Amino acid sequence: MLTFSLLSIVMVVGAIGVITLKQPVHAALSLVGTLLTLAVTYVTLQAHFLATIQVIVYAGAIMVLFLFVIMLLNIQGEEREDTFVWMRPVAYGVALLAAAGITIGAFQNASPLPNPIMIARALGGGGAEQVGGALFTDFILAFQLVGILLLTGIIGAVSLVQRKAEEAVEAQRQVAIAAAPSRKEGGVAVLERDDKPDRSAKPTPKPTLPPKKEPPKADASPKVQPPREAVTELKSKPKEKGEAQKQGGEADAQSKVDDAEKKSSAKSKAKEDKSKEASKPKESKADDLKRIKGVGPKLEKLLNRNGITSFEQIANLNAKEIEELDSKLESFQGRIERDNWLEQAQELAEEKKNG
Amino acid sequence: MVPTEYYIALSAVIFTIGAVGVLTRRSAIMIFLSVELMLNAANLALVAFARQWSVLGSGPALSGQAAVFIILAIAAAEVAVGLGILVSIFRYRSSTDVDSLSEVRL
Fold this sequence. Notes:
The structure holds 2 protein chains of 2 kinds.
Chain A: H1 2-20, H2 24-44, H3 48-72, H4 87-108, H5 116-123, H6 128-137, H7 140-161, H8 165-177, H9 196-200, H10 209-213, H11 221-234, H12 237-254, H13 262-282, H14 297-305, H15 311-315, H16 319-327, H17 335-338, H18 341-354
Chain B: H1 4-24, H2 28-52, H3 58-93, H4 98-103
Helix pairs in contact in B: 1-2, 2-3
């Protein structure tokens, strides 16, 4: 009983840590602690093979994957404003009721525990031989289906993060333009420096682009600006608009380095953020209109096609121009007022001017 | 040996803590972690019952543990695909706030 009390206390503390800690890394580590304690609990329940698998697969592989994604996307802690303030107490109350109900139900309908000797004989300590025997005889169908499920999962995960070749090239160029210091946006701090080995391992390089990319890849941000402007100038004017339009696709393209690895794509996502951030203060021609809440990649392309490429333009729209622009927005009509673009654009334009 | 109902009570507590986490956290990663917590609580209940009903024979005795093994594999696949979706969303949105995700239409 003492063992069980200790284990249960550690597990509950770990679980509460998962849901209350602000930093995602802390919460993930708390979950790792909970899972390891759960593995020990499995041992007390005569499930030794499962305990091993729990440590290796759950606390080992799955949580490491979580930590990879958290660290490479550089996810910061969240702010604490709730959309519905009453949600939190209601959730606590309902959870308390549910836990109490289940616990009382469990204690009411308790069956006596069988003889430990019988348990040991039936379970055999839950060793690999016993569990394997059950899996390959009684549960062979479920076992095969899980295999198919894992295959589907692999294909799905890879296809989610894979990017087309043209977008990969375009993103390379975007990253070459912008490698200046980054700012925090939407709770995400972007990586300051490039990780060179990632891009140098690109499988489908276009011959002209990598040489242009080399100068801006310097670490120090001030040094980056002159070569970056040179690179910007090298591109012809018509292309700049295309780049602004393609900024939506740059994120996709950038991760073409290693398709199968979410890690690289997450890293590239951070780089893409950086390039998106950096291009805002430097390029006066094409702003990243997606920073306005309510504007996504498709809408940004639409705006660029109608000649709107910077925050100042949106901020200075008068009523007649708003109407004209609105009529051109096809399925996005009414957004200018609804999402209050003028105010947002004004703020963003000032931000751009100041920093 | 500790009676089964204690394990069930512990499993219920962990499960409800995970459910509260899913309801109250705003970041998608944190919701994922809470879902993993719920899955593990269910696994604990299954293993406890596997021990309780082991007297029924070799097949039913281990069905709980075999089920946990399969649920573990399913959780792994779910995490892989879910984090892939998360990374893809994060590219365009640069924030994992699910509340804002539900508001904006692309």
